[in-house]
What does this fold into?
Amino acid sequence: SGLQYGGGALSAPPPAYGGELLRGQRVCLFGDSHMRHLHNGLVRVLTGAACMDVPRSHAVCPDPSGTLAYTELHYPRDFKPCRQLPDACTAAIVNVGQWSLGFPNAGHVPTAAEFERNIAAMLWSFLHHRSGHHEREVDADANARITPVCNATTTPLPIYVLPINFSVMSRRVLDCEARDWRNDAAIGLFNSALRRAVYAVNATSDGLGGALHFVDTSPLVAPVSDLSYDWAHFTGIISDTLARHVIAHMAAELSVLQQFVQ
It folds into this structure.
């Protein structure tokens, strides 16, 4: 038992502060490898389950409580609310931007202004649509096709937006002909764009404003980026700390909402 940092077995952490408020919730996570790691950290601190804690960026631990659901999302434009946002979701945690800088589509790295517009459009979709009923269509060749139909919603879905993680710069970043633009300056610019998009959409969301929350994890990640097992991702106690940080923010908001309803 005890901590073996770097991918070994970990003793179950104590329950997370505020975790009891998430019981009965359905928290949907959207993003790529950093969100898979957060998902796994949340499983551990919420349930104490012996979640796989090995350096595999594609591992998704099963959640015995049924609270968490993970959906892969690379770019803001890839989000399709009809297909990816079930009505069962009571909250969402979103993290995108790594691919926009690290694996730019067709080699085009968006400017911070372009990224901000893309994020704002994605967040608007998160707020205003849920996956609705499905309609059966028949095309000219008599082939049946099931098409999801979005229903507009007036129920705010709390959405927690996380910044792009700072990471140790690799050769792909440092080469004269860079293939990866995830340097500290660019990540800082994109994170500022994320924050601005959250505030802008909150201010213009037709009564749904206030449902977006920017949860800044950078102060936790930036000082320890060189402790990552692969220079980008965290397991062990750092992963657990990030999960607790997110849970505390969510619990604070849920506590206020519950008091308001009561």
